[in-house]
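Exercise 7b. C-alpha cells:
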C-alpha cells in the first residue's frame, strides 16, 4: 500500500503557484466564446470552467435557451457570480466592442487545419467554439481560415466531434499550459 499525504488546502498560507496546483488570478487569462450555443447544461459547464480558470465567457446570440434557464443555472452550480459573462448580438459586435484582432482568435472546428498542439496561445486570446449541432457558422470559418484549430481525434468517421464543454475544457487547459510554461507567443495557422 502506498500512502499519499493529504495536500494542504489553498487557505493554509501556501503560495498560489505552489507545485503548479493553482493558477495565478492576477495574470491575464483567456476569453471563451460560444457562438449560438443550444444546450443549457453545456453552457453551464463552460461557465463553471471559466470560473475556475479565471477566463471570460462570451455568448453570441441567438442562444438556444434563455439566460435564466434552470438547466443552465444548475449546470453552472453556484459559480455564476464568479464568471465574467457577456452576451453579444453578433460575433462582429463582440470583435468591435472588445477590439479583438484576428491573431487573437482561435476558432475550433472539426475541419480545422492546425492541430491543437501546433497552435500557439497567449494571454488574452479568444477561444471560439460553435454550437453543438452544426459547429461554427461557415461564414466565420471562411473569414478566418488561418485561425482554425482542431482537437486531435482518431480518423474514424463515427468519431466526428467532441461534446462542446469537453472540447472547450481541452482547449482552455492546453492554452493555459502554454501560458503558464511561458512558451513564446505565436499564431496558429
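Sequence design result:
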Amino acid at each position: 500500500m502506498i500512502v499519499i499525504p493529504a495536500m494542504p488546502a489553498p487557505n493554509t498560507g501556501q503560495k498560489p503557484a505552489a507545485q503548479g496546483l493553482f493558477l495565478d488570478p492576477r495574470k491575464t487569462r483567456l476569453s471563451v466564446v460560444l457562438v449560438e450555443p443550444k444546450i443549457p447544461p453545456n453552457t453551464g459547464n463552460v461557465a463553471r470552467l471559466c470560473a475556475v480558470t479565471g477566463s471570460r465567457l462570451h455568448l453570441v446570440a441567438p442562444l438556444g435557451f434563455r439566460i435564466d434557464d434552470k438547466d443552465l443555472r444548475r449546470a453552472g452550480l453556484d459559480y455564476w457570480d464568479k464568471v465574467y459573462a457577456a452576451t453579444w448580438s453578433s460575433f462582429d459586435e463582440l470583435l468591435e466592442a472588445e477590439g479583438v484582432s484576428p491573431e487573437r482568435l482561435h476558432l475550433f472546428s472539426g475541419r480545422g487545419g492546425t492541430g491543437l498542439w501546433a497552435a500557439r496561445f497567449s494571454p488574452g486570446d479568444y477561444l471560439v467554439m460553435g454550437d453543438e449541432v452544426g459547429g461554427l457558422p461557415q461564414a466565420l470559418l471562411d473569414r478566418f481560415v488561418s485561425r482554425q484549430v482542431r482537437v486531435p481525434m482518431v480518423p474514424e468517421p463515427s468519431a466526428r466531434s467532441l461534446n462542446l464543454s469537453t472540447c472547450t475544457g481541452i482547449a482552455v487547459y492546453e492554452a493555459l499550459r502554454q501560458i503558464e510554461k511561458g512558451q513564446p507567443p505565436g499564431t496558429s495557422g
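Instructor comment: The first helix runs from residue 40 to 53. The chain has one domain: 26-151+162-181.
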